[in-house]
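Researcher: Please generate the 3D structure of the following complex. Treat every line as part of one assembly.
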Amino acid sequence: MKVSAVPRQGHDTLHGFTREELLRILRRMLLYRRFEEKAEEAYAIGKIGGFCHLHIGQEGAAEGCIGPLRPDDYVISGYREHTQALAKGLDPGRVMAELYGRSSGASAGKGGSMHIFGAQEGFLGGHGIVGAQAALATGVGWAVRYRGEDRVVVCFVGDAAVNQGVFHESLNMAAIWKLPVIYVVENNEYGMGTAFRRVSATEIKDRGVAYGIPSSVVDGQDVLATWRHMEGLISEVRGGGGPRFLEVRTYRFRGHSMSDPVSGTYRSREEVAERTEHDDPIKILRDRMMEADLLTQEQLEAMDAEVRKIVEEAAEFADRAPAPSPGELYTHVYSEVNPHGRLFFDGRER
Amino acid sequence: MAEITYREALNQALLEEMERDDRVFLMGEEVGEYDGAYKVSKGLLARFGDRRVVDTPISELGFAGLGVGAAMVGLRPVIEFMTFNFSLLALDQVINSAAKMLYMSGGQIPIPIVFRGPNGAALQLAAQHSQACETYYLHAPGIKVVSPATPADAKGLLKSAIRDDDPVVVLEGELLYNLRGEVPEGEHLVPLGVADVKREGRDVSILTHGKTVHLALQAAQRLEKEGIEAEVVDLRSLRPLDVEAILTTVRKTNRAVYVEEGWPYGGVGAQVAAIIQEEAFDDLDAPVLRVTQADVPMPYAKNLEQLAKPGVQRVVDACHRVLYRGVPPARGA
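Model: Done. Output below.
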């Protein structure tokens, strides 16, 4: 099976989007960027704990892949999922409150950065075991087909996940049962500190081909190309064409997590500086719009001020939100209180 | 009441629940065209078609995770492991996904799923195909575990498990599939978390679950000939656990022996002994003893396998010890 590669096109390419559409896409990406910068700041002063993986630099993948979906489609992801949750429609305040570990958080403060859920918005988490969400996505796709619905499931994994067994088992089952799942591999080139080329003898896109799944590559720093390409895949999958495999080439501008320096033993400061300068999805879109006289500096600054305000309000909401009450320790372990027998064995009052 | 096999009882439970609720489907290796590796799903493909009775590739982790994903959006999958030995491949999806999803989503995403299949040793299948997997699942909050010993309990517990909104692990017994027993006609549900006194007695309590219930009953018969009345309590459900039933029998006999197929370290009997000493210490007249599999991988050779498995005589000996009949009580059986 042939892999179709989509090389980055000229920076003057606006892919037929209207000015309003372009402004909306730019604004969304700017919101994701400012949100993550705020999270970075809050982490530094101890308001966010644990592992926290930022998506800065990869906003084009989130907006380009989720933007073209219907509200009733599903998205499921790994632990670098803050901006994907926002893209799927979760309120920034509830996502920030989750990072802060507050009861008003998207997952009531029990999930944190890696486990953001929005069942109503069709955002099915934030999963922390590399590649595990591929099997879950396959099951969601199974349920969609079982019920005869025409929803589409988008499953985000990172490049490192393609070496997990569960990823391969999932692709195989999706292919034999023609499930409506698009497996999106966000290839940011490094699984934590391990360059992908060091742990694979083949290219990522070839992994889908092995299971007979139509596979393609798109430049994730070009949000417009990603969007248009996803529109095509979504339409094929919604029409009953079975699963699709998409490698989105991108780059992370920050460390693997907050405890990881931006550059270090595994990638040079020069490399990161070069990529940040030339491969920033927000700058790429901004420049194209300015070159086409669709955006002025003043408009950009006004837009930036507007999204910064949203992010500030999200942080204030998170700050004000109460921590979960101690009684919440024992809720949501089981879905109902069992009328018979003992479920908890720690001997503590609840 | 009709007398049917344990296998037929499970089959009836699946059939009835699939007829009752279209969200229920059965998925696993050989469940469809082969009619089930142990024929538990016999006839279900013909009845329900391949939308609801689904043969999978040999991908335990993948199809267990697929089931969890389907449950995330409201289906009620029954995932069959050909045997629980192979379920260890799927442990990540069962523990990290199924057990924790409701909690880490802040209550948004329940996982109504059943993982079922034969557990424990059969005959001369050696180390990798003969193990009791209870404790891997019991250990994780968020999962429920049941282990039926009779056809009636198999049917009633599986039906309850399928209707439950949480992940339930149903541990069957390969050597029980041909066991015959009476099963009530019509709708028969056994609630999770309720133990069953399989035999009443006043002298010593033999607590157990699953296949070893029958071993305990044989030991009780042997003890009866010596004038010792053993009470046999089948826990049936391991999480939720019927602690009241455990305490009640201990308060009655003041002596307890736990019998299980699994290994001793961190086993079910270890937990039950802990509960008894914490909550009924003053009622005990002897230390709680355990009869388990020998603390070794299961050997192939017939004689070694017999030595490794918990046998009737070892249960009788343990009862003698807690009754201080001719054997020193201090050490394990």
